[in-house]
Specification:
The chain has a domain at 3-159 and 175-236 and 343-374 and 405-461. The termini are far apart. The protein has 470 residues and is mainly alpha-helical. It has 17 helices and 8 strands. The strands form 4 sheets. The protein has a two-stranded antiparallel sheet. The longest helix is centred in the middle third of the chain and has 36 residues, at 212-247.
């Protein structure tokens, strides 16, 4: 264990923790906007009560996402100053747009939406939450564009004198094929996650037979969102796999632990053997699937780890350019497996609650609620695969992770910050979970309370102070 290992562990912990909140924020912003739109379109107070209920949970989540995201960015200056110097001219551009455009839009209008229930005209207030939803999606794209440069560097030139990459074409960075492919995949993952959360929380109230007039339509929306997100993940994942093969063929080979270049390469659902995959016996194997994922043809050619490593030695100099295979192999499968589990859960709940039915088995709803963890695990596994599969590069083909760590930060400094951040995150996790569960269990406001706080402005209200809706 050295400074590089500790710095990587710390960044991994903070990234995975932060991304627990991101997809829920993206997905719930859209669902809250839809619920409020349904209220405005139908006038049904059940939709208003659902908007208030899910809006409160959305606010808890977005607050945690902001806090953890800021801490994550600190590490670029703390543990990765060499990386920041090398790629800052490029990396900073999309992140600046994310802060100045997307985050500004999101944070401004979420404040207006919170305080504007009884002060803004209904149409204007509704527009605020839709702008928040647009802001979260735009924020995701700019961040993914920055990450895509690490996967597939474009729109730059190397300044040998300064020892860094410099931006030459910002449009190319934004239109990076990896960003264009990973963006819909991330958005669909967010819908899957938020939909599963809605199903789980509504399931809790189904189990206790409370406020079913509010939670039944919310559950239907959650089921639909989960299924649309899952189907979208399958389709966008297929496109992303082909882009990944074209830009980082080693990552695709590492996903299957495929050491020898193969045609009609199979995809193994489960293999028993050595951890590095050099010697294994496939237990469940789908012929030609890896070739299809990589090339679009079951008979396609997929380059193996050994051939690619030999090519990279010729191109970049002697070294080991193979990522850690046990992590890439299993994280790829966990990502797929947990995503499919979330979809299966949504289908089962839909079938079991159709035509007003209420499942009677005492374990049904607890299992549904625990299954809501599946998309979170899928998201974490997906990001671990994405980042670990790029190793040993921090910027593929340009800059290795071992070069990116801060040169003057010692073991003690990184260890202390790692322990400190981890403890803070544990405290935040407990606080966030307790708050979320407290308000989730409390249920929606009464019809009278919801209507009272949502009353639009009138001439008599012009001099009254703005009321806090929650």
């Amino acid at each position: 264990m050295d400074v590089l290992d500790l710095a990587r562990i710390q960044f991994g912990v903070t990234t995975v923790y932060h991304f627990l909140f991101v997809p829920v924020t993206i997905g719930l912003s859209l669902l809250v906007a839809i619920l409020q739109s349904l209220w405005r379109a139908t006038g049904k107070t059940t939709y208003l009560r659902a908007t208030k209920f899910w809006g409160k949970l959305f606010l808890i989540n977005i607050a945690m996402g902001v806090v953890t995201g800021i801490v994550q960015e600190f590490q670029f200056g703390m543990n990765w100053s060499a990386y920041s110097r090398f790629v800052g001219d490029i990396f900073g551009a999309p992140l600046a747009f994310e802060a100045l455009v997307a985050f500004f839009l999101e944070s401004t209008f979420i404040g207006v939406w919170i305080f504007g229930w009884d002060r803004l005209k209904p149409g204007l207030h509704l527009a605020c939450i839709w702008l928040v939803a647009v802001g979260t999606i735009a924020s995701a794209y700019f961040i993914l564009a920055a990450n895509a440069f690490m996967q597939n560097p474009v729109g730059y030139q190397l300044n040998e004198t300064a020892g860094r990459a410099e931006l030459t074409d910002f449009g190319a960075v934004l239109a990076n094929p990896v960003a264009l492919a990973s963006f819909p995949h991330t958005i669909f993952a967010s819908w899957l996650t938020a939909g599963a959360v809605v199903v789980a929380v509504s399931g809790y109230h189904f189990m206790h037979r409370r406020d079913l007039d509010v939670h039944r339509p919310a559950m239907r929306l959650g089921i639909l969102t989960t299924l649309v997100g899952g189907i979208g993940l399958v389709l966008s994942g297929d496109a992303l796999g082909k882009v990944m093969t074209a830009t980082q063929p080693m990552k695709m080979a590492a996903a299957e632990a495929l050491y020898q270049t193969s045609y009609n390469a199979p995809f193994s659902v489960l293999t028993v053997g050595t951890l590095d995959g050099r010697h294994g016996t496939p237990i469940i194997e789908i012929p030609g699937l890896l070739s299809y994922l990589a090339t679009g043809s079951p008979q396609g050619r997929v380059e193996g780890i050994n051939d690619l490593n030999a090519q990279y030695n010729t191109m970049f100099g002697p070294g080991d350019y193979v990522p850690y295979i046990p992590v890439t192999y299993w994280s790829f499968r966990l990502m797929i497996g947990f995503g499919l589990l979330a979809m299966a859960m949504a289908l089962i709940v839909w079938w079991s609650t159709r035509r007003g039915r209420l499942p009677a088995h005492r374990l049904f709803w607890p299992v549904v609620m625990w299954t809501a963890a599946a998309p979170f695990l899928a998201n974490s596994a997906g990001w671990i695969f994405t980042e670990m599969g790029r190793q040993p590069w921090v910027v593929f083909s340009l800059y290795q992770t071992s070069e990116a760590v801060s040169p003057r930060v010692g073991m003690a400094t990184v260890a202390i910050s790692l322990i400190g951040f981890t403890l803070v995150y544990l405290i935040l996790a407990v606080v966030a979970l307790k708050l979320f569960l407290k308000f989730a269990k409390a249920g929606p406001p009464t019809e009278e309370d919801a209507l009272a706080s949502a009353r639009g402005p009138s001439d008599d209200d012009s001099d009254k102070p703005m009321a806090f809706a929650y």
